[in-house]
Amino acid sequence: MMTWSNLNFQNSASPLMEQIIFFHDHTLIILIMITILVGYIMSSLFLNKFNNRFLLENQLIELIWTIIPAITLIFIALPSLKLLYLLDELNNPLITLKTIGHQWYWSYEYSDFKNIEFDSYMIQQEDSQQKNFRLLDVDNHVIIPMNNQIRILITASDVIHSWTIPSLGVKVDANPGRLNQTSFFINRPGLFFGQCSEICGTNHSFMPIMIESISLKKFINWINNYSSLGDWK
């Protein structure tokens, strides 16, 4: 999750988010090099007094300043396309999680298991006996096994929402009447937070997402005990 004075990305919890950060750094280096080069050329033009009254055309320099930007765009486009296809890749998911956006909460269904579905509401600070993450903590968070491919199906029941978890590199719109699909792979245990990233109404800021990543053995125990316990917490 984000903390004060953190200007960088959140620590990644999935291989795809790592690749997104690498691509960001790769593109940023290219942009810095272009900015320094253009800044140097502009400053040298302002500061020198060279003049060429007979310069009408120069096909060589026009060829150079056409080819170099094209090559630069290729260096940006190739990793971008590779990452774009990786984000849409789906490799033998272990479980499928269905997410339904409402005004203003989320509903979750574990489609591979019987009668496992619940609503997830934000916990208000004054209603809790302990200190929680303000505007991020929920009463029922999602349990996911780590080191396994997870497929998520996302839709909405009323208006457009957006299911977003930055540390996993996931951002998918939830549209009424449409079922969107994506997948993610969590490579470490922990709590991961997200929020709706689509302006969906008055309480848009108050429908957070909270995922708990646990081992596969603990996840199986949670599945087996869910019906008898009635609550996973």
TrEMBL record:
One of its GO terms (cellular component) is mitochondrial inner membrane. Residues 92-225 form the Cytochrome oxidase subunit II copper A binding domain. It catalyses: 4 Fe(II)-[cytochrome c] + O2 + 8 H(+)(in) = 4 Fe(III)-[cytochrome c] + 2 H2O + 4 H(+)(out). InterPro entries: CcO_II (IPR045187), CcO_II-like_C (IPR002429), CcO_II_C (IPR034210), Copper_CuA (IPR001505), Cupredoxin (IPR008972), Cyt_c_oxidase_su2 (IPR014222), Cyt_c_oxidase_su2_TM_dom (IPR011759), Cyt_c_oxidase_su2_TM_sf (IPR036257). Binds a copper A center. GO terms for biological process: ATP synthesis coupled electron transport. Pfam families: COX2, COX2_TM. This is Cytochrome c oxidase subunit 2. It comes from Eumeta variegata.
